[in-house]
Design a protein that fits this description.
alpha+beta, four-stranded mixed beta sheet, three-stranded antiparallel beta sheet, 20 helices, 11 strands, 54% helix
């Protein structure tokens, strides 16, 4: 299309949007124009009769109402605050090299430089219009009365704000970041055109007006009036939606064509790093950060963790071998004066957006360093899950041990859990009693379906996601009757489990987690503490969203009851391994919490637990326990 072609297309579409605005204004002024014509005609005796005079006054009243309605709609559109992406602002004094690089890039592209730079905890970059008076910085005090009268002090920045994904700064090199940002910065050229800027303000104002009129917390009179304003705003939005979309496509095409003159070859290589950074960021959030957030801890160096995760990926995957060699070049985070402060602020914002955590650190929402992650998050999570598992067993009246030779018959042991899941009778030992598909005395809890676990429920276990996708280990063939009995029960989500007591235990865990989540939600509704952000000048923007809508971008769907049971039994096995076999909790950058046995990561635990839950066969797990040296009859320490 070319630079000029894209710009011309964007301008023509912007004019189409402005024509829709002009037509709406003309419709609002039409009754007033007709009324004026009739009143003037009557005053000059061009029309005569009582009917004309009555029609003139009726049209004048209608014109007055139309003008009042148009003025009200225009006031709502003008005063509504357009939506702004939550970001971490980067003042120029905290990143002079970054601002210098962006300005140099804008000069090479022959476009206006962005007015400011901000970071977002996501793998994307864009320009954001913040020229609305509510978004601009406060007006500085004038030095003299003449400057105040003449209005020489600008209220808002004229250029858009450049928003950069924070993972890019830590993973990419300086040259790669410049190449990736070139098409984005080039978009400031078309954005500076008056017609395009006016069309964008009109569309954003309509969108903000629709959001304002959707609020239901007003009185009946205001609600009816705002409903009319919302109907008009939606009608105008539908009318100009297609033109606005084509305008943005024209702006993007013009920016991409202009950016081809700057670092085009390097940009092709840098796009590979964009995809790699996205994969590493997603893996870090879902496997590593999410378990910490659910435990009331937020990793304070998420962006630095992306580098560690991608470096680990390059070590494991031969396809990524060349990526680690880039680490010898200057990283883009060196363009920041205090990268640690910015990383902490971006990490706190990520926890708020993706998990719905508090806006400020507190006793129940504390930062955690990567060195402390195994002890503060992994160990605590496993012991919390194990304690919850035994609470549910106690509530269902399950005996503590079916083995009379157990070291601590009343303590929380792994043998108790395995006996319950395999259906071992109280008269049998823990080594493999007769199976009982629900008729034993230990299955006393009613088989009711409990509500699904909430999104904040703990569920992560070492390599659990990969293990769920893998098939369970093969077991010796069973007779048709045994196979039917082993899969005759389902949990509350329709998944096969071994017996009735397993389904009841899974449902009990779901109900217990639902109660805990409800209690936590009640506590989180308390007013947040006042005070400035912990990260100082690098803190996130003021709250621009309703706390009731958080998290804005939930990472995972609520786990099923069988997945919860798998995670809790795996946590119980890990606790027994730490307390009886000298295993330690660890952090795997790609898979999250992991169990370290003699310093090596154990990746074959979860398939054996699934065999126990789905088929009621403890043999693979018992063999693994014997091989590692874990004593299932010994009690474990819980939180």
């Amino acid at each position: 299309m070319g630079v000029e072609g894209g710009a011309q297309s964007a301008r023509s579409r912007a004019l189409a949007v402005l024509r829709i605005r002009s037509r709406a204004l003309a419709v609002a002024l039409l009754p007033a124009a007709v009324a004026v014509v009739l009143l003037v005609a009557g005053a000059m005796d061009h029309v005569d009769g009582a009917g004309w005079r009555l029609a003139s006054w009726i049209l004048a009243a209608v014109a007055l109402l139309a003008l009042l309605a148009a003025a009200g709609i225009a006031l709502v559109v003008a005063r509504s605050r357009p939506a702004v992406s939550p970001t971490v602002p980067i003042p120029e004094e905290s990143a002079p090299d970054l601002y210098r690089m962006v300005r140099d890039l804008a000069e090479r592209l022959e476009v206006p430089p962005p007015s400011a730079i901000a970071l977002t905890p996501d793998c994307d970059s864009w320009l954001e219009d913040r020229t609305h008076p509510a978004h601009g910085p406060p007006r500085p005090e004038p030095r003299d009365e003449i400057a105040d009268v003449r209005g020489l002090q600008p209220r808002t920045p004229a250029s858009p704000v450049l928003v950069i994904g924070s993972p890019f700064l830590w993973w990419m090199r300086v040259a790669e970041l410049r190449a990736v940002l070139a098409p984005v910065v080039a978009g400031t050229g078309p954005s500076a055109h008056p017609d395009i800027a006016a069309a964008r303000r009109f569309v954003r104002g309509l969108d903000a007006a629709v959001a304002v009129t959707s609020v239901r917390t007003r009185g009946p009179v205001a609600h009816v009036a705002l409903a009319g304003v919302g109907w008009v705003a939606r009608l105008l939005l539908r009318s100009c939606r297609g033109h606005a979309a084509e305008m943005e496509r024209g702006v993007a095409a013009a920016a991409a064509d202009r950016a081809q003159a700057v670092d085009y070859g390097l940009r092709i290589v840098a796009q590979e790093q964009v995809g790699l950074a996205y994969a590493g960021w997603d893996r870090l959030l879902t496997r590593v950060a999410l378990p910490a957030w659910r435990m009331g801890r937020w990793p304070s160096r998420l962006d630095a963790g992306v580098v560690a995760a991608l470096t680990e990926l390059s070590r494991r995957d031969r396809l990524a071998e060349g990526f680690a060699s880039r680490l010898g070049e200057r990283p883009a985070c060196d363009l920041l004066e205090e990268p640690g402060v910015i990383d902490e602020a971006a990490s706190l914002l990520a926890a708020r957006l993706f998990h719905g955590g508090p806006a400020e650190p507190g006793p129940d929402w504390a930062p955690v360093d990567w060195a402390e992650y195994p002890d503060e998050v992994v160990d605590r999570k496993w012991r919390t899950d194990a304690a919850r598992l035994h609470r549910v067993l106690d509530a269902q009246g399950v005996s503590h041990s079916s083995d009379p030779t157990a070291l601590a018959p009343g303590g929380p042991t792994l043998a108790r859990v395995m006996d319950h899941l395999t259906g071992a009778r109280a008269s049998g030992g823990s080594g493999g009693g007769e199976r009982d598909d629900g008729g034993g005395d230990t299955a006393r809890a009613p088989q009711e379906t409990a509500p699904a676990a909430p999104p904040g429920a703990p569920r992560d276990a070492p390599d659990s996601n990969a293990a769920r996708a893998a098939p369970s280990p093969h077991t010796p063939p069973k007779s048709p009757d045994e196979s039917h009995a082993a899969h005759a029960y389902e949990d509350d989500d329709g998944g096969d489990v071994a017996n009735a007591r397993t389904a009841a235990l899974a449902a009990g865990l779901s109900a217990e987690l639902a109660r805990e989540e409800t209690a936590a939600s009640a506590i989180s509704t308390a007013p947040p503490p006042t005070g400035g952000p912990a990260a100082g000048q690098g803190g996130p923007d003021a709250a621009l969203w309703d706390d009731g809508t958080l998290p804005l971008f939930p990472l995972q769907q609520p786990p099923t009851a069988r997945e919860l049971l798998t995670d809790h039994v795996t946590a119980m096995v890990c606790c027994a391994a730490m307390d009886t076999a000298g295993a330690t909790p660890g952090l795997d950058w790609l898979d999250g919490p992991s169990l370290l046995i003699n310093g090596e990561r154990s990746a074959d635990l979860t398939p054996r637990v699934l065999t126990l839950i789905e088929e009621g066969d403890p043999t693979p797990l018992r063999n693994w326990l014997l091989h590692v040296g874990i004593r299932a009859e010994k009690p474990v320490r819980l939180v």
